[in-house]
Amino acid sequence: MQRADQHTQQQIADLVNACAGYWELRGIERARNNEMQLELEQHLQQAVHDGKSLEAVLGPNPLGFAEAWAREMHPRFWRGGARCLSGLVYVLSIVSTTALISQLLSRAPAFTLSIFAAYLLTGSGLLALLLQLGGFLAPRVRTRAGREALMLAGAVLAVLILRLAGIKVNWSMALLSWSWPMTVLLLILAAFLFSLDVWRTSHREPTSSVRRVPMFVASVALFDMMLFVANVAIVDFCGLALKLV
Amino acid sequence: MDTRSTQLLKGTLDMCLLATIARRPCYGYEMVQQLAQQGLDLVSEGSIYPLLGRLQHLGYIEGYPVASRDGPKRKYYRLLPAGAKQLEHWRAEWETFAQAVERILKGERSDATSGPAYPTTDR
């Protein structure tokens, strides 16, 4: 079978990815999810090869298609919760390591989580999810860059609307504050939950579990660094600029 | 395809899929092609997959991987004994239904040519 052009390949990949992410959130088990992905991808490839559009396969509403298929596969709520466990582990690891680093660096007895840091954390998580699910727009918006630009424009528009509605936020305001024992406790909890998550997936994919540990540590370190830089660059810089003005 | 045909197809697609698989095991895209050859063009081809999932869950068909020349293995579907029994039941049900509809439609046409079919007042 001849392969479609690069743009169409990307559209197919993004659509299949979006469906896979959605099915995972809906609680469809991994093996079945992979099977469904492969079946969908093969169908899309062959349809495109025969000159059909992606819409001819998925209809005008790809999300509706993904949901209809998911419903018939009898998903389990707790399997969807397993995906949330991974997210919780990630957030907990970032927050606890950020607290540890800042307490070590400043030798402060307590750590304060600002609204800005919490916004960055939830915002990044939401953005990652939206960018993946943005693949559902693939039949309408052909390029990935176009889809990403559309999602970002939507996010900016939402912020502008909130701003126009008169909602003002004090970004440096403390959301939570805790001392050393709590940081250590959070670190232990994060490590425990991460081990649980790795153990949960290890019997299915033993090789990927081994790779997961260094990748997880690297991504947490990267996010910590991003959070630190963003805090310094935005909050401190803005504070300094305001003082100068 | 107009709305009526779409609605009719929606209500019978599971039966058509089962009949297609009963002829010989095939994969999703192949089923769509066979349906199209028989004159049934689907509005969205992907709509077969939720139905295949349902038929599989009910134990009427089963999926199995088959090596493909074009790349990774393809998922083929084959009929199970429970599916064959259900297909027979659906066939009988459809024949009764189709005959009834046909009788009504033909009756309407013959009434139209043979005079008024509506009650008239006595004078």
What would you say this structure looks like, in words?
The complex is a heterodimer of chains A (245) and B (123). With 245 residues, chain A is mainly alpha-helical. Chain A folds into 2 domains: 1-75, no CATH class; 76-244, no CATH class. Chain A is built from 9 helices and 2 strands. In chain A, strands 1-2 form a two-stranded antiparallel sheet. The longest helix of chain A is centred in the last third of the chain and has 39 residues, at 206-244. By secondary structure, chain B is of the alpha+beta class. Chain B has a single domain (3-113), classed as Winged helix-like DNA-binding domain superfamily/Winged helix DNA-binding domain (Arc Repressor Mutant, subunit A), CATH 1.10.10.10. In chain B, 61% of the residues lie in helices and 15% in strands. A 3-stranded antiparallel β-sheet of chain B has the order 1-3-2. In chain B, a hairpin with a 2-residue loop joins strand 2 (61-68) and strand 3. Chain B is elongated, with a radius of gyration of 20 Å. The relative contact order of chain B is 0.12. Classes of the chains: A mainly alpha (245), B alpha+beta (123). Chain A binds chain B through residues 1, 35-36, 38-40, 42-43, 46-47, 52, 55-60, 65, 68-69, 71-74, and chain B through 27-29, 43-47, 49-51, 53-54, 57, 63, 70-72, 74-75.
Largest interface: A-B, 24 and 20 residues
* Amount of beta strand of chain A: under 5%
Question: What structural category do the secondary elements of chain A indicate?
Answer: mainly alpha
> Termini separation of chain B (Å)?
48 Å
State Rg of chain A: 22 Å
The overall average pLDDT of chain A, rounded, is: 83
Distance between the termini of chain A: 65 Å
Output mean pLDDT of chain B. Answer: 88
- Quick one: how many beta strands of chain B? 3
Quickly count the helices of chain B: 4
The ordered string of helix (H) and strand (E) elements of chain A is: HHHHHEHHEHH
